[in-house]
Amino acid sequence: MDLSADPRRTLPSVDQLLRWPWVAELAAQHGQPLVKEIIAQALSTLRITVTPFDADAFCGAVQNILTTRLSPSLRRVLNLTGTVLHTNLGRAPLPEEAIAAMTAVARGASNLEFDLDSGRRGDRDAHLEAWLCRLTGAEAATVVNNNAAAVLLMLNTLAKGKEVPVSRGELVEIGGAFRMPDVMLRAQCKLREVGTTNRTHLADYAEAITPRTSLLMTVHTSNYKVVGFTATVPEQRLAQLAHDHDLPYIVDLGSGSLVDLRRWGLPAEPTPMDSIANGADLVSFSGDKLLGGPQCGIIVGRRELIGRLKKNPLKRALRCDKLTIAALEAVLRLYSDPERLGERLPSLRALSRSRENIAEQCERLMAPLAAWVGQGYEVTSEAVMGQIGSGALPIEQLPSQALVLRSATAKRSGSQLNALAASLRGLPVPIIGRIQDASVILDCRCLDDETAFLEQLKDRR
Ligand SMILES: *Cc1c(COP(=O)(O)O)cnc(C)c1O
């Protein structure tokens, strides 16, 4: 057999290619190991598809692989889903003040756990505690990685090896496998279910209290609502019952807002201030839900109990980093001026936008979007309903306005809509909408960067 007749033999070796000026320059720019690996990958593609060796095809393949490899995996997208605090899309956008604070401490050393007055070791919670106490009326506060961690830490510290009565109506599952019964198990405490799914009375709790009981607890049913013939026990009465038995009363508030959202025309969500005033000894809530800050879990309450949480070795494992602390401190500072919060906090700004305001934006974007999508589709601006997200106020809807892309020929199959949604996701700043009623719906409530949206629609689809 004549081996020279095999066109693959005309392929240069990786080492030969590395000496090519074009490749050498890439290696100088991006590092030899990466470029070498990509060359090998490009060659193995070419071995199957292009023979004999085609230098242009080779360069194109290398460039493509390199571009994919070097573009970050985690990147910005435009959240036009209509769900403002979208867990899969990173929940709350941060205000500029928080971004600046993170940048300032990211670059170098900080007084993260260093007391500048005494020159001694400090406590990372110290940067946040005073703010949290002022804003919630609590005596003390600590912060961990997220609210799931906060609940785990509270239960493991105060209820390890003991029983925790919880209403059957509150055994929640939050997305991503946070289920109250499982968390109890991991916290090494024993869940004692009380009451029924729809009705739980004070007497149910009272009967459940034994010498093995560690505390009483309320879990906010943040992502569902039990309606109809229902009964729950108000915080005040549960706190009283717990205290009559010398037990702490704790509340997992889920989202928990630090302000009364009705001020911005939004539905009311329970606040940690109310729970503390009602007698709760500890209250936990998320930093990146309605609060509008970075991912973290905040626990506020009695000094003695917070002190015990901090001594639990789990606290060390669940603590949050300096970037989170910097961002949260900056966000909490915005809360000291509630008047301006609606403009300064991006999540609240998005949540409080009126449908009229969003509709004006849709008007501006309709024609450019129609030009981008091309003839097969008609683009309209329509009234839709959005939601807050992250389990906050699950059944309240936000009147919003969306750009709706619908087939002009009325007979588009689901796969064509999926392809359209995929090309929106394939843009440089991916646009994430939702598919509903045979259309792609782009709810513009969260679109604050109109320029980024328009810029990338200049090239036709
Ligand atoms: C969201 C939520 C959690 C989990 O909070 P993360 O900050 O997402 O960890 C726990 N409990 C309730 C009631 C919630 O709504």
UniProtKB/TrEMBL annotation:
**GO biological processes:** conversion of seryl-tRNAsec to selenocys-tRNAsec; selenocysteine incorporation
InterPro entries for this protein: PyrdxlP-dep_Trfase, PyrdxlP-dep_Trfase_major, SelA-like, SelA_trans, SelA_trans_N_dom
**Principal place where this protein is found?**
cytoplasm
Q: Where is the L-seryl-tRNA selenium transferase N-terminal domain?
A: 8-47
Q: What is its EC number?
A: 2.9.1.1
Residues carrying N6-(pyridoxal phosphate)lysine:
289
Q: Which Gene Ontology cellular component annotation is one that this UniProt entry carries?
A: cytoplasm
Q: Which pathway is this protein assigned to?
A: Aminoacyl-tRNA biosynthesis; selenocysteinyl-tRNA(Sec) biosynthesis; selenocysteinyl-tRNA(Sec) from L-seryl-tRNA(Sec) (bacterial route): step 1/1
Gene Ontology MF term list: L-seryl-tRNA(Sec) selenium transferase activity
Give cofactor(s), names only.
pyridoxal 5'-phosphate
Quote the catalytic activity from the record: L-seryl-tRNA(Sec) + selenophosphate + H(+) = L-selenocysteinyl-tRNA(Sec) + phosphate
Q: Which UniProt keywords apply?
A: Cytoplasm, Protein biosynthesis, Pyridoxal phosphate, Selenium, Transferase
Q: What class of enzyme is it?
A: transferase
Q: SUPFAM superfamilies in the record, alphabetically?
A: PLP-dependent transferases
Q: Where in the cell is it found?
A: Cytoplasm
Family classification:
Belongs to the SelA family.
| Entry function | Converts seryl-tRNA(Sec) to selenocysteinyl-tRNA(Sec) required for selenoprotein biosynthesis.
- Its protein name is L-seryl-tRNA(Sec) selenium transferase
